Amino acid sequence: MRRFLAAAALLTSAAVQAAPTVTIYSYRQPFLIEPMLAKFTEQTGINTEVVFAKKGLDERLKREGKLTPADLVLTTDISRLTGLVDMDLVQPVASDIVNSNLPKQFRDPDNNWFALTLRVRNVYSSAERVGKVDINYEDLAKPQYKGKICTRSGKNAYNIALVSSMIAHHGEAETVQWLEGLKANLARKPQGNDRAQIKAVAEGVCDYAIGNSYYYGKMLSDPKQAPFAEPVAINFPNQDNRGAHVNVSGAVVTKYAKQPEAAVKLLEFLSGEQAQQMYAEANMEYPVNPKVKPSPLVAGWGSFKEDSLPIYQLAENHQAAVKLLDQVKFDL
Fold this sequence. Notes:
The protein is α/β, with parallel strands linked by helices. It is built from 14 helices and 10 strands. The chain has 2 domains: 2-118 and 247-295, Periplasmic binding protein-like II (D-Maltodextrin-Binding Protein, domain 2), CATH 3.40.190; 119-245 and 306-327, Periplasmic binding protein-like II (D-Maltodextrin-Binding Protein, domain 2, 3-Layer(aba) Sandwich), CATH 3.40.190. Strands 1, 2, 3, 4, 5, 6, 7, 8, 9 and 10 form a 10-stranded mixed sheet that branches. Helix 2 links the parallel strand 1 and strand 2.
């Protein structure tokens, strides 16, 4: 009996040791991704370990080089995804499962990065003073909006991506004129985060504001912040032409991953229907997988037409966007 128990213990120990662990460097907050990771482990037997930080993970990954423990990076904004590619810190992934889960425009043409959620850059308006509006981003530079618009810093990644999309559609010369007109129409200097812009509309500082839709959803779901979101209407711009600008969160498999096969399995899971639904419910973002519907709250805002511009073009225009923002001294 003792020999049997000893043998069983050895087998159990070997099985535990054999189970791989995917180490994740994440800019996404733990509360958002941990339920999905628990479900992944339950279904696959593959363990996960998360290292969370608000910034600096790309520099850390580069510094660690071949010694990095990271197998996968979860991050926000297309510029961060492509930045990891530019730093030669990722490896391409060939997965029919991922490719079938994610539309082409939300995958890197060279399979180096993959989008996992969509966030829309909306225009908010005062429900009482203005109501819902049919508006284009281009309209925000028109004289009738003078002193009526709020936004966060132009150098924020979300706004840089919006400017990048304007360059893609209109070229740099027209985008400079647009930025000058938008700056002239601001009710105050760019400041605060996206939630602060919604609050500013509610408090009458401005009639319009630029912000990501999921912040609006989070505020509506928070009893303490709902009073600031409820007097504000959400509008999807450019619905009569190219569609609303979208950005993404996404993932890459690291160049020196110790568990590359397990990391790909996690990527396949995160792009699948179950995880995409969990993402949608937890963070009020839009699923990238077209088979998955947004959360009931988000769906209540109505359907919208999204800009079909390939996401990678936002990254291609990133530096040009920063240059134009500096040129017009947008934040000053």
